[in-house]
Design goal:
Number of helices of chain A: 11
Radius of gyration of chain B: 21 Å
CATH class of the largest domain in chain B: Alpha Beta
Number of domains of chain A: 3
Distance between the termini of chain A: 29 Å
Structural class of chain B: alpha+beta
CATH architecture of the largest domain in chain A: 3-Layer(aba) Sandwich
Strand content of chain A: 25-35%
Number of domains of chain B: 2
CATH topology of the largest domain in chain B: Phosphatase 2c, domain 1
Number of strands of chain B: 17
CATH topology of the largest domain in chain A: Rossmann fold
Largest sheet of chain B: 7 strands, antiparallel
Shape of chain A: globular
Shape of chain B: globular
Strand order of the largest sheet of chain B: 12-11-15-16-5-4-17
Largest sheet of chain A: 7 strands, mixed
Oligomer: heterodimer
Helix content of chain B: 10-25%
Number of strands of chain A: 22
Strand content of chain B: 15-25%
CATH architecture of the largest domain in chain B: 4-Layer Sandwich
């Protein structure tokens, strides 16, 4: 852990509340940068498990062949010394490499052996994702000091184990490793992968064309290899009698962390935020505080980034911190000003909600709600400058009037487009300092 | 270096009458004679030039406190004791940045508005006022990062004004430490017989060392900012019976405001971008001051300031008047000496009541917008003689009011 990135915390908010004002919004930008930039491999121990769906349906549309190529590509970019395994998932999980239940260190030889084992995979059987995750969880258990990451590829619904099994498996795995998921084809369930990747602090994406899997797996594994510190916690202090109404990750994707609070002391709550390499993420905090008199100042929140101790150095460490300070004023010009970044992220939260609600209503045949919510989404996507989502919405609705959000549902919508819009509804764009949209976050 | 004696030290006794002395006594309760160094319970540090330290809970605000062995008949004041319990929720945990650890409300620092008067030593009652100052947060800044301190010796008055550099975290503390250190050093050196110019140089450089020592001490709650150390400006005045000596670094100023038909004048030359541009002849005065960089400092006290070499100016006033030292929160709105003189001297007996004159200056700055912290210290020239009983029974009469 000698290679910890330098973390910085930046707070954006309007620090002025009107007389009697109690609700405060702030955007917390966390940046991690390793000395010398991202070119160098981190020195930290890492563990990687690749989980490939080998259920019978994988044989169609060249999915199995593409999945094998993708898994080999992932194995090939593991850096020397990383502990890894490959799991094949069907009704039960099976270790593809190594054959006994452990992780092996990556080397030229083990990478080659793993690739040839992957090459011999056949597709047969069903889908029981919970059991696959539990095997990964057992393999990671020996390596708590390493940065633990898994990749899950599936093409279908989790239909070969009782529904509560998946939730039980997620509860058992939560906090033990980070998992990024990919759905290939159009027979998998968006809410299911959202549930899994969200519980395991990772992201998920749709890969409609199996041919794209290989590049995607390589990129995902390279990103995992770039992580330099695991198990980072966002610790938030709030004043007595204050309430932390919500904590949401906003960049790279919308993720409501509010329910994940773990109390860590008086007025302190911890929110796990996973493993970090050279990257930055943004969080939206909403605090309700007791109103102060005009002219008074308050620390409404105190945000710290904490990493747990290791076996070598058991003390936890605070990597960076930031203060959310407020002042009550009777100057309306100050208190009514809306911080541009807060406005941007509020719009993106609403956008994600509008898309998910609109698609849900559409699936249930409630065309009025679907039209209204997706129309609102069209307006919001334009407002926040999320061009990717605007383009995806265009495949689901015909825009009649952009300003008012008047739209018509398209009669024919491909399953892939619908799933893509659903999946990517939470992908956000960053703000520039002036509040305008800039680069796309995520992929 | 402040811990010459501290609370709990064995009590000493008055060398003249044997009356027991507590650690807080600077004068004997029995015979009224000043405590002498010999009465201090243990050897002093070689150079006890430390500033007076904060007294315990409930004590007066940073007056010359226990352990500060003040030179004979010198009184130093500055203000700004830290609050110890939260006035809102009663919690005893106030962070170094002034926010309560429990309810989160920022506690008043005691420095939002400070007024200090120092009377001539030796007078029983109604001793003439030797110096007065006012420091105020102003109307736009969340806190007061200015500080000042005053001291008087038998026939000489010392005053220091410092202005914390707002962009450098911890500068509020820097200004307070610099003012307190400098006034203590001035008083000691003058009492020890140093000439005013040497004392001025020593005080500035000692203040600079103390401010530099604050670097790296990150206030809780603040992220460490690389390459940014607490910093402040500095102006000192020594007003003796015949001579006025000014020392400065940065853009805090000194003015001479004669109580006569003579023209008032600015005694300092700012270490600022605008002044440098005008001095080089590269810009006109109007253009330089209109530039957004006008107020950038070219010299200051702080760890990143290099060697401290204060500018010095001294002069012998031809007649009575007021020496004004002030932060830029005052002169920004009233830059001309004539304007300042008109406000300061526009009252009954301005030389006898410098606090009222300082109050008028503050009012003028607040009326002009109060954009910055405002600090003004006024020292009447010549220092008025103590009236009342002879020095055989010295009893200081100094008043201090804080709001």
């Amino acid at each position: 852990m000698s290679d910890l990135p330098a973390f910085t915390v930046k707070i954006d908010h309007n620090p002025h509340l009107p007389a009697g004002g109690r609700e405060l919004h702030a955007i917390v930008t966390v940046e991690a940068a390793r000395e010398g930039g991202g070119g160098r491999a981190p020195a930290a121990e890492a563990a990687e498990i690749i989980i490939i769906d080998t259920s019978g349906s994988m044989t169609y549309s060249g999915k199995m062949a593409a999945a094998k190529r993708a898994a080999k590509a992932a194995v090939n970019v593991l850096r020397d010394g990383v502990r890894f395994a490959v799991i094949a998932g069907a009704n039960r999980p099976r270790l593809v490499y190594p054959q006994d239940e452990r992780l092996v260190r990556a080397s030229a030889r083990t990478r080659r052996d793993a690739a040839s084992a992957v090459g011999r995979l056949d597709a047969a059987g069903g889908t029981a994702i919970g059991s696959w995750l539990l095997l990964a969880n057992r393999l990671f258990a020996e390596h708590r000091d390493a940065i633990r990451h898994a990749i899950l590829l599936t093409d279908g619904k989790n239909q070969h184990e009782p529904a509560p099994e998946l939730q039980k498996a997620l509860d058992a795995c939560s906090g033990n490793f980070v998992l990024d998921a990919r759905g290939v084809g159009t027979d998998w369930e968006v809410p299911e992968l959202r549930l899994i990747s969200s519980a395991l602090l990772g992201g998920f994406l749709d890969v409609p064309d199996p041919a794209d899997l290989e590049a995607d797996f390589r990129a995902m594994t390279e990103a995992a290899m770039g992580k330099a510190v695991a198990d980072v916690t966002l610790r938030v202090w709030t004043p007595q009698h204050a309430e932390l109404r919500f904590v949401k990750q906003m960049v790279p994707a919308v993720e409501d962390l509010t329910g994940r609070r773990v109390p860590s002391g008086p007025q302190l709550g911890d929110y796990p935020i996973g493993a970090w390499g050279d990257e930055d993420r943004e969080y939206h905090l909403c605090v309700e505080v007791p109103a102060g008199d005009v002219g008074r100042q308050m620390r409404a929140a105190w945000v710290k980034l904490v990493v747990p101790g290791t076996s070598a150095d058991p003390d936890e460490r605070v990597l960076a911190s930031g203060n959310v300070l407020v002042e009550w004023t009777d100057d309306e010009a100050k208190s009514t000003r809306i911080n541009a970044r807060v406005a941007h992220h509020t719009g993106q939260s609403e956008l994600a909600g509008a898309i998910q609600e609109g698609l849900e209503a559409r699936r249930e045949g409630d065309e009025d709600t679907a039209t209204a919510r997706l129309g609102r989404a069209v307006v919001l996507a334009k407002q926040v400058g999320n061009e990717q989502i605007s383009a995806l919405l265009d495949r689901v609705v015909d825009v009649i009037d952009l300003d008012s959000g008047t739209v018509q549902l398209k009669g024919e919508v491909s399953k892939a487009d619908e799933m893509s819009l659903d999946t990517r509804s939470v992908r956000t764009v960053r703000t520039r300092v002036d509040g305008g949209p800039s680069d796309q976050a995520g992929s | 270096m402040d811990a010459v004696i501290g609370p709990g030290e064995p009590a000493a006794a008055c060398a003249a009458c044997g009356e027991p002395l507590t650690v807080r006594d600077r004068f004997c309760e029995g015979c009224g004679r000043p405590r002498t160094p010999a009465q201090v319970g243990r050897p002093r540090a070689p150079e006890p030039d430390g500033p007076p330290r904060a007294p315990g809970p409930g004590g007066p605000p940073r007056a010359a406190g226990p352990g500060w062995t003040a030179p004979l008949a010198s009184v130093a004041y500055s203000a700004g004791a830290d609050p110890l319990t939260c006035a809102d929720c009663g919690s005893a945990a106030i962070g170094p940045d002034g926010y309560c650890d429990t309810c989160g409300l920022r506690q008043p620092s005691g420095r939002e508005h400070v007024e200090i008067e120092v009377a001539a030593p030796g007078g029983a009652f109604a001793a003439p006022i030797r110096a007065a100052g006012v420091s105020d947060r102003g109307l736009r800044r969340p806190r007061n990062e200015d500080a000042f301190a005053l001291a008087t010796l038998a026939d000489t008055v010392c005053a220091v004004v410092c202005d914390g550099v707002a962009s450098a975290p911890g500068s509020e503390e820097a200004a307070r430490v610099a003012a307190e250190t400098a006034v203590a050093v001035l008083a000691r050196r003058l009492a020890a017989g140093a000439d005013a110019r040497t004392a001025t140089r020593t005080a500035a450089s000692r203040a600079g060392e103390d401010v530099a020592a604050l670097a790296g001490v990150v206030p809780a709650g603040a992220a460490p900012v690389p390459d940014s150390s607490p910093a402040c400006t500095y102006v000192s005045a020594i007003v003796g019976p015949g001579t006025v000596t000014i020392g400065w670094i940065g853009d805090s100023r000194a003015y001479w405001l004669p109580h006569s038909a003579r023209a008032p004048e600015l005694l300092t030359k700012d270490d600022s971008w605008a002044v440098r541009m005008v001095a080089r002849g590269t810009m006109t005065e109007a253009a330089a001051w209109a530039d957004p960089r006008a107020h950038l400092l070219t010299a200051w006290l702080g760890a990143d300031a290099g060697t401290i070499d204060p500018h010095l100016a001294s002069f012998e006033p031809a007649g009575p008047g007021l020496v004004l030292i002030c932060s830029d929160g005052l002169w920004n709105d009233l830059p001309e000496a004539a304007g300042l003189a008109a406000v300061a001297l526009d009252g009954p007996a301005p030389l006898a009541d410098p606090l009222a004159a300082a109050g008028r200056l503050l009012r003028a700055a607040l009326d002009a917008g109060g954009h910055d912290n405002v600090t003004a210290a006024l020292i009447p020239f010549p220092p008025p003689h103590p009236t009342g009983p002879p020095p055989a029974a010295p009893a200081e009469t100094s008043r201090e009011t804080r709001r």
